[in-house]
Amino acid sequence: MESFAVIRADDPAKLNTALSDLQRHGGLTFTSSPKELRPDSADRILMNVMKVPLKKQCKAAAIVALSDDPGVAIDVLGRIHPPAHVIIVSSRHDIYAKINECLQGLPEIKDYMAPVIQKRA
């Protein structure tokens, strides 16, 4: 597991769209199913990683482990512009170990369906 993507959204529909966009348009590889994250936890992760005060609280949040290199994942975000705020957390962040410990105890997102991705010939 190289990194985590923490997704903060205004509503569950935007959350699911952002998760699908990461796979479909960004080509990122999830190592497990996306997990439900409490919005306040996602907000705290943002403040910890970005070292800035929170401007707006989210209403829906998720976290997913990525097998992709953190730098690649960040580049993908700049290219695809998902409809939610996505934070990439790597092992260089202080909170990485705590997230890694807690990830297994989080419930999977109930309504998320992974996109069907057509392989190009």
Describe the model.
- The protein has 121 residues and is α+β, with helices and mostly antiparallel strands.
- The protein has a single domain, classed as Alpha-Beta Plaits.
- Helices cover 36% and strands 18% of the residues.
- The chain has four helices and four strands; from the N terminus they run βαβαβαβα.
- It has a four-stranded antiparallel beta sheet with strand order 2-3-1-4, sandwiched between helices.
- The longest helix has 13 residues, at 12-24.
- It is globular.
- The model has no long low-confidence stretch (mean pLDDT 91).
Short description, anyone?
36% of the residues lie in helices and 18% in strands. It has four helices and four strands; from the N terminus they run E-H-E-H-E-H-E-H.
**What is the CATH top level name?**
Alpha Beta
* Neighbour order of strands in the largest sheet: 2-3-1-4
CATH topology: Alpha-Beta Plaits
Helix content: 25-40%
Rg over C-alpha atoms, rounded to the nearest angstrom: 13 Å
Oligomerization category of the chains in this entry = single chain
The overall average pLDDT, rounded, is 91
Instruction: Please state the overall shape, judged from the principal axes of the Cα atoms.
Output: globular
Q: What's the helix-strand series?
A: EHEHEHEH
* N-to-C span: 28 Å
Q: What's the β-strand tally?
A: 4
Let me know the largest β-sheet.
4 strands, antiparallel
The CATH architecture classification is 2-Layer Sandwich
- Residue fraction in strands: 15-25%
User: Uncertain spans, ≥5 residues at pLDDT below 50?
Assistant: none
| Alpha-beta classification | alpha+beta
